[in-house]
Amino acid sequence: MKLTKEKIINLIIILGIGVVLFTPTGFELKVILNRFLSFSPTELKSDDQRVLLDYNWQLSSQDRVAHNFNEYNDKVVVLNFWATWCPPCVAEMPSFQKLYNDYGDRVTFLFLATDEEEKVASFLKKNNTICLCLMLKAPFRRHFFLKLFQ
Predict the structure, then answer these.
(1) Do residues 99 and 134 both lie within one domain?
(2) Are 29 and 98 in the same domain?
(3) Strand order of the sheet with strand 66-68?
(4) Domain boundaries, position 22
C-alpha cells in the first residue's frame, strides 16, 4: 500500500481528532479554545426568566462544613454551577477568580460543583483558586435539578 499525500493528510487529521477527544492534552486544548471563543452573556428577557422556588439546598464546603442556600437569601450572590471535567467551566474560572478578587467583599461568590470532593479540592489547589466551593450532598444531588425550577 502506497502512502499518498492525501492518505497522509487524512491520517494526520484522524490523529489530531483522537488527541483532542481522548487525551488530557485535548482537554487543555478545549479549555484554551473556550477561552478564545467565549462571549459575554446576555440578560434573559423577563418572559424567559424563572423564579427560584426552593432555597433549601443541602450543601457542604471543601472542609465538610454544612451549608444551606437559605443562608444567602438576602444577599447578592454569584452562583456558578461547574465541574472539573467541563472545559467551558475550567475556562471561565480565571475570570471568576478575578471578579472574586475585585468584588469578594461586596458580593457572595458560590461555586456549586457536581464532582466528588477530592477532585474539586485537587482542582482548586492546582489552579490556586480561592472561593467558597460547595458540593450538593449525595442524596440531594439526584433530585436537585428536577425540582429547582418550574
Answers:
(1) yes
(2) no
(3) 66-68, 58-61, 132-136, 108-113, 77-82
(4) 5-37
